[in-house]
Amino acid sequence: MITSQQLKQIVPNIKPDNLTVYTDVLNEALPRYDIITPERIRCFISQVAEESASFNATKEFASGKEYEGRKDLGNVNPGDGVRYKGRGLIQVTGRANYKECSRVLFKDDTLIKKPELLELPKYAVESACWYWQSRRLNEICDQPDDWTHTVTHKDGTTSTYTKFQQLTRCINGGLNGYNEREAFYQRAKQVIN
Q1: b vs e for 123-157, b when ≥16 Cβ sit within 10 Å of the residue's Cβ?
Q2: Counting C-beta atoms within 10 Å of the first and last residue's C-beta, which end of the chain has fewer, N or C?
Q3: Cα angle 91-96-97, degrees, rounded to a multiple of 5
Q4: pLDDT per residue over 43-52, tens digit each?
Q5: How far apart are CA 117 and CA 2, in angstroms?
Q6: pTM (two decimals)
Q7: Contact 2, 26 (CB under 8 A)
Q8: Which residues of the chain are under the pLDDT cut of 50?
């Protein structure tokens, strides 16, 4: 599906030790989540590369204190914000997301007890694939290049997003790091045909 050489061309700042590990883990995991077309692979690699600092970070740099008490993330117990801060290649965040991810990956609450498992390459990729599939992001990838998504805001104004912008919004909640994501994506389009 993807070679180490292709991954290095798309993500030039990936550390050498991570290159082989992630190539193998990606090739094992992506087919199980139907991330198999060139466009799906290009989009996935581009998005997770930005989220993980070029496959070099599987744990959020911040402490997680800002998530304390966030009921929308399921953080209802003291310490949940720090304990369930972003981990994995898409930075799964919050007790509720850890629980949902754990039920898919482990068929139980393993990640509630051991959230740091998402820092390991295998589970960092698996959790990103779970997130991708659970948010139906392959469906966005499958849209034509000129596809757009229009959102009506609470104040009645509208915003229209390109396919790749909408993917970014679904993963990040906004367009944070969009230029970097787009740069990964443009390289991926040259490398994965």
Answers
A1: bbbbbbbbbbeeeebbebbeeeeeeebeeeeeeee
A2: C
A3: 30
A4: 999 999 999 9
A5: 24
A6: 0.95
A7: yes
A8: none
| Residues near 40 by beta carbon (within 8 Å), at least 6 away in sequence | 34, 138, 141, 142
pLDDT digits (tens, 9 = 90+) for 127-172: 999 999 999 999 999 999 999 999 999 999 999 999 999 999 999 9
| Domain locations along the chain | 4-58+138-191, 65-119
> What is the spatial distance between Cα 118 and Cα 101, in angstroms, rounded to a whole number?
10
Tokens representing 83 are 């304990």
C-alpha span between 181 and 171 (Å, rounded): 11
Most distant CA pair in the chain: distance in Å? 49
> 90 near 48, Cβ under 8 Å?
yes
